[in-house]
Design goal:
InterPro entries: RNF213 (IPR031248). This protein is α/β, with parallel strands linked by helices and about 150 residues long. The protein folds into 2 domains: about 100 residues, no CATH class; about 45 residues, no CATH class. The chain is about 30% helix and about 5% strand. It contains 4 helices and 3 strands. Strands 1-2-3 form a 3-stranded parallel β-sheet, covered by helices on one side. Helix 1 links the parallel strand 1 and strand 2. Helix 1 packs parallel to helix 2. The protein is globular, with a radius of gyration of 18 Å.
């Protein structure tokens, strides 16, 4: 948010982890992050890494240890649920741990995201479904099974 015109991360910079995420997916992601090449100053992010299975987590840590020797200037952020801090990945990477508290008010964050997710020229796209021609939207309900 310090550089409002800087683009948001692209699909190759973010890995959204689930219990079904495979070791191959994590391996490809870590290689993109840790193998030195001329990709610029990307910041790679693993979201919900605490949800990876034990086997996948072990393999991910081993690969990380192997690959980080070849690149000391990688930029990797691993985000985990604080309620699962004793799962494998948060424990294995605990010496890198940084507790994060948002530094900006919620309204500023929302304005920043609206700037990046608004469709520039309204057309007959799916963005017309969401408020203010946003190309991303969240649909939620407090009740289950209401057709979302």
């Amino acid at each position: 948010m310090n550089s409002p015109e800087q683009p948001l991360p692209t699909f190759d910079e973010v890995l959204l982890c689930t219990p079904q995420t495979t070791a191959e997916q994590v391996g490809l992601f870590l290689r993109r992050c840790l193998v030195p090449c001329s990709r610029g100053e990307k910041i790679y992010t693993m979201l919900f890494a605490d949800e990876l299975s034990y086997d996948v987590s072990c393999r991910a840590e081993e690969l990380f240890q192997d690959l980080q020797r070849y690149n000391s200037s990688y930029r990797l952020v691993i985000l985990c649920n604080c309620e699962r801090e004793h799962s494998y990945i948060p424990s294995a990477f605990s010496h890198y741990k940084v507790h994060m508290i948002p530094q900006r008010p919620r309204a500023d964050i929302q304005r920043y995201l609206q700037h990046h997710y608004r469709v520039a020229q309204p057309s007959s796209s799916a963005a017309s479904v969401f408020k203010d021609n946003m190309c991303v939207g969240i649909v939620s309900s407090r009740r289950a099974g209401v057709g979302k």
